Amino acid sequence: MAHFTYDLFADKSDLLNPMGTVEKNPNVDSAAGLLIRFPNIRPHPLYYPPLDKISGDMEKNGDATIATKEEYMKLKEIMDNKNSTEFFEDEKELLWKLRTEVRDHFHESLSKLLLITKWNRHEDVVQVPTESFRR
């Protein structure tokens, strides 16, 4: 079982930051303390599935899509606009739908995928093509 002790500040006038602090109270002798115990739930670390399994599952589920000629032209137009960092909703949807095309053919624009990723949805975060960012 893991034990963590956090020494609390005695009164609000001691706080430099009224929203809270990220450091423990240095005066540990006279401060109240908070002891938190976390049980060891699992003996080994938890890992995401391997990337080859994720990409294989995407192909089985049909998530890896092939662009139509019109979609590819629109994608190329978005990628050619180097200074654009703001996208309309339909452009975001197209970029997300064709994220594997961006990964495979537009390496210089991978940052645009990071801009349109919905970071609060773990399903989307898992599907960001991380293997292309390691190249």
From TrEMBL:
SUPFAM superfamilies: ARM repeat (SSF48371). It comes from the Eukaryota. This is Phosphatidylinositol 4,5-bisphosphate 3-kinase catalytic subunit delta isoform. Keywords: Kinase, Transferase. The keyword Kinase applies. The keyword Signal does not apply. One of its GO terms (molecular function) is kinase activity.
